[in-house]
Write a structure and sequence with these properties.
The protein is α+β, with helices and mostly antiparallel strands. Among the domains are: 79 residues, Beta Barrel (OB fold (Dihydrolipoamide Acetyltransferase, E2P)); 113 residues, no CATH class. Helix content is 36%, strand content 19%. A 5-stranded mixed barrel has the order 1-2-3-5-4. The protein has a 3-stranded antiparallel β-sheet with strand order 7-6-8. β4 and β5 form a beta hairpin. α4 runs antiparallel to α7. The chain is elongated. The C terminus is likely disordered.
Length: 307
């Protein structure tokens, strides 16, 4: 027996189906991931309008059935389109990777309200991100101008993706330990490097790491940068990395207790100097999630080189 279900949802994937319909995968606040058939959605006068565009936030109505995994979409009302996400390729790419990760880790009909609100928050941050856009009348100097802009303000997109992945993993039960040694449980001293071991899920102090450490060496500033990405709201991260004139908010002191206080400039420098932060984060996720989850993240190395 079919029943009518109303839900708030983010559109994660859209595919054409036959001549007039679409297959849409939603991340709903109340019911987790649902896959729907939107009949007639490809027609010019479709009743769904822009509510089925990628990343849109909508209120949907669908018919649920206990015996079917592909549900029938009855109606969709657009709440917010996040149209600003598509204005820049890097912004769209970052949103796509966040949505793809959510698509692969959430389960059908298994609500994850924390992860839903996290994705919504980061989409909103990407849309409103104040990042300098360089434009020139002369195409011959475009590359030089782009290089100058990148020197003045390093791209915040890879760091935002890192931050989203770290927080999403935390909500799913895999928060990395960045403040205490996983072996001796002592706080990491703020003037000494530590070693990040993805398989163990956190950092090892120099004393426990021994003479031949296995993990990635992180200087104190680099460790602070990772903690900043994990514990700080997305809007503040964007302000710090984009050199916004607004002052960055103070990071939660309880999470940073016992370590030196890094100002916005120092944090920006530490994050930019952190070697391949996406490699580091994906290495951690690769030990705790199915490797198939990470297949879509092969773009990251090129993004870090070009931004």
């Amino acid at each position: 027996m079919r029943r009518i279900v109303r839900a708030e949802a983010i559109c994660l994937r859209v595919r054409d189906y036959h001549e007039s319909s679409k297959l849409v995968t939603f991340f709903t606040l109340e019911h987790g991931k649902v896959s729907c058939l939107a009949k007639g959605a490809r027609r010019l006068k479709s009743r769904f309008g822009a509510a089925l565009d990628l990343f849109t936030r909508s209120r949907i109505i669908y018919y649920a059935s206990e015996t079917r995994t592909l549900l029938t979409l009855s109606d969709a009302e657009l709440v917010h389109a996040f149209s600003g996400v598509a204005l820049r390729p890097e912004r769209f790419l970052a949103a796509e990777q966040m949505a793809e990760f959510a698509l692969r880790v959430i389960q059908p009909h298994d609500p994850s309200p924390q992860l839903y609100r996290l994705l919504l928050n980061y989409l909103s941050t990407l849309e409103s991100l104040q990042y300098p856009v360089c434009s020139l009348q002369s195409s011959g100097s475009a590359n030089l101008q782009s290089a100058i802009c990148n020197l003045q303000s390093p791209s915040p997109y890879p760091a935002l993706v890192c931050s989203f992945l770290l927080k999403a993993a935390s909500f799913l039960g895999f928060r990395p330990e960045l403040r205490r040694c996983l072996i001796c449980r002592r706080p990491i001293e703020n003037q000494r490097p530590a070693y990040f071991e993805p398989g163990r899920g956190g950092v090892i102090c120099p004393r426990c790491a021994g003479e031949n450490p296995l993990g990635t060496r992180l200087e104190p500033a680099g460790l602070d940068a990772l903690a900043f990405l994990l514990y700080t709201p997305a809007a503040e991260i964007a302000r710090v990395l984009a050199n916004s004139p607004q002052p960055a908010l103070e990071t939660d002191r309880r999470e940073r207790q016992g370590r030196h206080d890094s100002g916005p400039d120092n944090l920006q420098s530490a994050i930019c100097n952190l070697q391949s932060p996406l490699d580091l984060v994906l290495g951690f996720l690769g030990h705790h999630f199915d490797p198939l989850v990470l297949n879509s993240f092969r773009w990251h190395a090129g993004l870090e080189r070009n931004t």
